[in-house]
Every structure is written in C-alpha cells, then in structure tokens.
Design brief:
Blueprint lengths: L22 H74 L3 H11 L4 E9 L22 E8 L2 H11 L7 E9 L6 H4 L13 E8 L12 H4 L14
Length: 243
C-alpha cells in the first residue's frame, strides 16, 4: 500500500503556513481609501476655489477696464444724444412749416373779380397776432394754420361764390363766415371789419369776415416759429370797388 501522510501541510516539518488575515486588515485598507479620497476631494476643491478666485479677479479687471473705456466715451455719447435731439427738432420744424407762398398763389387764382379784400392775415397758430391783423373772431377756434379774410363783394351771392372758391384751395378743410352784411344792414360793419375798411361804398355791397382753416396741416410745435409763418394783413388797391 502507498503510505498517506495525514498531517496537514502547514503542520508538517519544513512546510509554509498560509498568512492569516482578519477583519482588521480590511478596516485599515478602507480607512486608507477613505482618507485618500478625502485628500483628493480637498485638493480638487482647493484647485476649483483658486480657479474661481482667478476668474473673479479677471472679471473685475475687465469690468474696471470697461468702466474706464465708458468714461472716456461719455462725451461722445452725450454728443450723440444732443445730435439726435437736434435732428428731431429740425425734422419737427420742417414738418410743421406751412407753404404760405402756395396758398397765396392759389388764393389769387380763385379770387373772383367781384370780390376784393381789405384785410388778410395768415398765421400758423391762433396764438400769433401780427400788428394790423384782420379782426376775425373765428380764427381763435382753429388750432392750426388759417387765413383771416375781411373784404367786400358786389352781392351776397358773390360772397357765397367766394366761399365755394376758397374750398378749391389745396388743403382747405372748412370756411367759416363770421359776418356778411349789406351796406344798409349794419352801420357798424365798417368798424368791425378791420382797420380802416372803406370798401362798402354802396348799399348793395356786402362786407364780410371769414376764416379759412387748414385743419389737416401739422400744427407748429413751437411758438417761436409762428411769427415767421405769419403774413401781415394787407390792403389791396381800391380799383375793384363798385363805382
């Protein structure tokens, strides 16, 4: 028979014992791993904090540079704002100007032969009152450009025809007749019509006062412009009066 050695290998003479490890070894290894992870996290946090601090310093530097540049460009910004305001003012004045030359030309074209004017005042605003202006109360109720007309016609029919003719002027929106009286109807007509009117020399001659409105025209934004837009009252020659 073959002999069998029943002695365990580790107990045999000259044999090697297997190292024994208990739970303490695992605890130590775990503690080391935890410590290592903590150190790694701390280092990462410190690095991130340092990066954030560097970024903050960089942003603050950029902000300071931007403020300094904005301060140096402030005069240009103010100049731009002033230029924009002036451009807006000029545009507003240009848009609010009224073409009186065209209106006078068209008035001369539509004025009938049997009607003559003793007073004519053209203003861009009712606040404007040139010296010697025609005294037409209706002018005060028109906020924009308007004509105040005082004159005479050979008859009441001629006054009505003149009203219709005035509506043919480009831009006229309405014509208001304040008064229209024949020579025998109103003794005060000559005094109320304007300065020194003597056109009503016959009883059949009608003396009138009227206002012609241009409501669609832009209203002047400044009163300083209005005097330049005013046309003083005029007294045409008396060659058109009835004999």
């Amino acid at each position: 028979m073959r002999p069998v050695n029943l002695i365990p290998q580790e107990d045999r003479p000259g044999g090697r014992r297997a190292p024994r490890s208990g739970p303490l070894a695992y605890v130590v290894v775990g503690a080391l791993l935890v410590a290592l992870l903590g150190v790694a996290a701390l280092v990462a946090a410190n690095n991130q904090s340092a990066d954030l601090k560097d970024e903050i310093v960089q942003i603050e530097g950029e902000a300071a540079a931007a403020e300094a540049k904005a301060t140096t460009l402030a005069p240009y910004t103010q100049f731009h704002a002033v230029a924009e305001q002036r451009n807006a003012t000029i545009a507003s004045l240009a848009n609010s100007r009224f073409d009186w030359e065209r209106v006078m030309r068209e008035l001369g074209l539509v004025l009938p032969a049997d009607v003559w004017l003793t007073g004519l005042t053209a203003t861009a605003s009712p606040a404007v009152s040139p010296e010697g202006a025609a005294a037409v109360t209706l002018r005060g109720s028109i906020p924009g450009p308007a004509l105040a007309l005082v004159g005479c016609a050979r008859s009441q029919q001629a006054v009505a025809g003149f009203v219709q003719a005035l509506k043919d002027i480009d831009g006229v929106t309405r014509v208001g007749v304040e008064s229209s009286a024949l020579g025998g109807e109103s003794s005060a007509g000559s005094d109320s019509a304007g300065s020194g009117s003597t056109c009503q020399t016959r009883d059949f001659i009608a003396q009138f006062q009227m206002a012609v409105a241009f409501d669609a025209a832009p209203v002047a934004t400044t009163t300083a412009q209005a005097p330049a837009e005013a046309v003083p009252s005029s007294s045409p020659e008396s060659e058109g009066e009835a004999e």
